[in-house]
Amino acid sequence: MSLDLNIDVKALGKVAVLAGGASAEREVSLTMSGPGVLAALLSQGVDAHAFDPAERGLHELKAEGFDRCFVALHGRHGEDGTVQGALELLGIPYTGSGVMASAIAMDKITTKRLWLADGLPTPRWLSLKANALTRERVITIPDELGLPVFVKPPHEGSTIGISKVIGYSQMQDAVQLAARYDDEILCEEFIDGPELTCPVLGEGEQAFALPVIQIEAVDGNYDYQNKYFTNSTRYLMGHLPAPLEAEVQALALAAFRSLGCRGWGRADLMLRKRDNKPFLLELNTSPGMTSHSLVPKSAAHAGISYEQLCLWLLSQARLDGKVPGIAGRT
Predict the structure, then answer these.
(1) Which segments of the chain have a pLDDT < 70?
(2) Predicted structure pTM score
């Protein structure tokens, strides 16, 4: 399926590219995703302007006559439904998922519960409260989930606060690190196999998946540094057998629809190597848009340029309960 790129640029109106924000992922949003999106929109003739919600009040969007927003924020107060809710109150259409879907997808634990309710595969897991950690409880986690085990803050992205625990002695440090970022801690079964990601565009039955990317990072460590600041990570497309590619795409679509997402998103998965079974890890509703980012790479493989992708996403901006359009504020 291809994008309808017959877009009236003038009808998009005055556009704010929201970038920066106050989350742990501020740097990537402010210096990489935001400027990339802004440059792409300007190149297409859009009346686009940078806007950092950490530096300016969102009420200024309405006061300055902005017609729509491209959300290039990452992490808390950017893709967790809070900014989306504020834009709903202001009546300014925005890109990506609405309030509820954004909030759910940002919470990896709630996401897992919904996926399991819909029969979608995700690694086994359990949660701990950061204010109720005891050595006796923490040390039992590997007995329940096996080793290695991943320990992560469920409301952060970009691998922030995540540890791969390979021995009992590492559990205490891992949970303490995660507790620095969250009041709840997610412990997740390790799936031995390659890491995959699959972007999704659109909404509901009209949504479609882009090509699957297999990620090969140095020493298998696709961390914050390897995501954004190195060129050593390999991204393989067209690498999976066609039936497996289709299976992963179908699972990404099901995950996207299960959470009620719209506009765009990116499902991250693990492929268990012993039987080629995919498992869902999380769904990002405001994926990175840097030169290293996965959605632009996948879109390019499908023949969609970065500029086309940004313009199309902007054209889909809307409010909850409103149909997509490019006629400005509705």
Answers:
(1) 1-2, 157-158, 219-231, 322-330
(2) 0.91
Q: Catalogue the active-site residues.
A: 25, 158, 228, 266, 268, 282, 284, 288
The residue ranges of every structural domain in the chain are 9-95, 104-121+192-301, 125-189
Cα atoms found within 13 Å of the Cα of residue 153, Cβ hemisphere only: 19
Phi, psi of 319 (to 5 degrees): -100, 160
CA dist list (Å): 79 to 21, 100, 123: 10, 11, 23
The mean pLDDT value of the chain amounts to 92
Give the tens place of pLDDT for each residue, 202-223: 999 999 999 999 999 876 554 4
CA distance 12 to 22: 27
Q: Is 75 helix (H, G, I), strand (E, B) or coil?
A: coil
CATH 3.40.50.20 at 9-95, yes or no: yes
CATH superfamily of 125-189: ATP-grasp fold, A domain (3.30.1490.20)
Q: Is 24 helix (H, G, I), strand (E, B) or coil?
A: coil
CATH no., domain 104-121+192-301? 3.30.470.20
- As a whole number of angstroms, the distance between CA 288 and CA 299 comes to 13
For helices 306-315 and 34-43, what crossing angle results, to 10°? 90
DSSP state of 238: S
